[in-house]
Amino acid sequence: MSIKNWYIGVLLFTLVSCDHFVLKKEHKNEIVNETLKKLNKTAVEQPPLFEVCKATPEEALEQCFQNTITTHIYDHLIAHTIVVKEAIDDTIWVPLLITHKGEIILENFILPTRVENQIPDLKKWLENSIHSLPKVKPAHTRGTPVTTVYKLPIVLHID
Predict the structure, then answer these.
(1) Would you list the domain boundaries of the chain?
(2) What is the C-alpha to C-alpha distance for residues 103 and 130, in angstroms, rounded to an integer?
(3) What CA–CA distance (Å, rounded) separates 52 from 140?
(4) Which of 38, 54, 61, 84 falls between 20 and 30 A from 20, CA-CA?
């Protein structure tokens, strides 16, 4: 076998075998699309974190976050004397936006007419309690701070 034939053989082998080593564009798109399908865009890996929750085990961080907010709002509301003409048994969903910078923003919400008529200052009290919450670290997904929205249920049971 001559050297010329050997070079031609190596050249043909290289040209034919290169297709097996190159990642085709359609394969890259399939991989990216499959990864995006697996990625849950609504879940966070680490919830927002108050300073008091730092020593809490990781599986209980979400519960600690919710308990801290609930306790704080409850403490603010019981400081006020609430007198109603009719019994109130209702749940109000308060939307809280925790930004990627750790700011807690009370989003706009509407009180039921019956509750607003009997407790006209309730919205203002809720706003004051949210604004006085302690500093919070934002939620994280893949190590990046993200903005999250929580709907906090406030159960009103007043006789």
Answers:
(1) 3-38, 49-158
(2) 11
(3) 18
(4) 38
Tens-place pLDDT, residues 32-85: 667 666 655 557 778 889 999 888 888 888 899 889 998 998 899 888 888 888
Q: Is the distance from CB of 47 to CB of 140 less than 8 angstroms?
A: no
User: What is the model's pTM?
Assistant: 0.67
Residue 88's pLDDT band (boundaries 50, 70, 90)?
confident
Q: What is the identity of the amino acid at 10?
A: V
Name which of 104, 107, 106, 98 is nearest 145 in CA terms.
98
C-alpha separations of 137 from 53, 70, 85, 150 in Å: 11, 17, 41, 15
- Alpha-carbon distance of 115 to 88, in angstroms, equals 7
Please identify which residue in the block is written with the tokens 């006789």.
159
